[in-house]
């Protein structure tokens, strides 16, 4: 055989190999539901952890951290390790320099001044670009349209203190920004009751303010917390499809921040009842109402754990990065958290625990600090240090992650909607 024939044969083999390669690549594109992607492969090849305690990825890891999400944007939860269950509350914070928040604050006219940090003059944006990544599974990003579809003809209520109002504002922003403003109804004129409705989906998201869950006579003198009487708004809670509760912060306030003068217990007004005893009675009052009034076939109940504060020596003032060592975070009452756990474990109605405390401890950068009011920037220009809000959270910001985990919990609760989730346990 001549040299020309050999060359022709080699070219034919090359062409055939290229054809086979292209065919395999097209098969890969067609089968998007396979767990291995080029981005995941890139993550496996180049992943390097720079954090001190495996809870925070520093900015140098931007590209590799984005690769780790694989099919996250497609709404699937992917198990990383078949030996471990998917715990969405255990993981690390990943910085994404090219990422963007789910919405712009200007898109949400109902945001309170307290959380409108950019509007109030905050100059940095990095706190908006941190994404939560679970250790043992890849969880999806929040998908507003998908959540509206899941919630079609349903009613969501969020009940609790101003931190739950923070979560309500976040959730409504996440949903409101995905639909035309004309197709939404909003009433946020009251500080104690707010409501959003997506007309085309018949979805309602309501907020009821009550920092103790039980009845609080804040306008009486003396101010009274009635431990065995549920909040007056409780009749309006009935029939909701999803309930999200929280309490804790107002129970542990002391000194000038203590909210009540007297406690009503067993028909008597007392002022010497221990905090832990009072809190346990109040939690039992709430738990009994849930057990007696919630329809197990209709309603899913969530209880959100305590949102941490960062009120240490320097507080959250001028903080622009998450912390890797959370040992100095101002502790809230451990006994309150233990009583909450104990109460939930004894209930007839299963309550899902949104355990956001640990993951939120790292985010001292995400508080409003001096930008909880417009006067903060003016005070800085006068070289004065105004009071810092190290309890609430800027929006867009950390509460968007709380709602992302709420969304993922709903996905995990309905494996029939997503067959690929049937092997996961939340």
Strand content: 15-25%
CATH superfamily of one domain: SGNH hydrolase
Would you tell me the structural class of the helices and strands? alpha/beta
CATH architecture name of one domain: 3-Layer(aba) Sandwich
* Termini separation: 67 Å
Query: How do the strands line up in the largest sheet?
Result: 6-7-8-5-11-14-15
Helicity range of the residues?
Answer: 25-40%
Q: Return residue spans where pLDDT drops below 50 for at least 5 consecutive residues.
A: 28-53, 59-72, 415-426
Count of separate DSSP helical elements: 12
- The SSE string, one letter per element, is HHHEEEEHEHEEEEEHEHEEHEHEHHH
Assembly context of the chains: single chain
Q: Would you kindly provide a written description of the structure presented here, covering whatever features stand out?
A:
By secondary structure, the chain is an alpha/beta fold. It contains 12 helices and 15 strands. The chain has a domain of 278 residues: 3-Layer(aba) Sandwich (Rossmann fold), CATH 3.40.50. A 7-stranded mixed sheet has the order 6-7-8-5-11-14-15. A 4-stranded mixed sheet has the order 9-10-12-13. Helix 5 packs across helix 12 and helix 8 packs parallel to helix 9. It is a single-pass membrane protein.
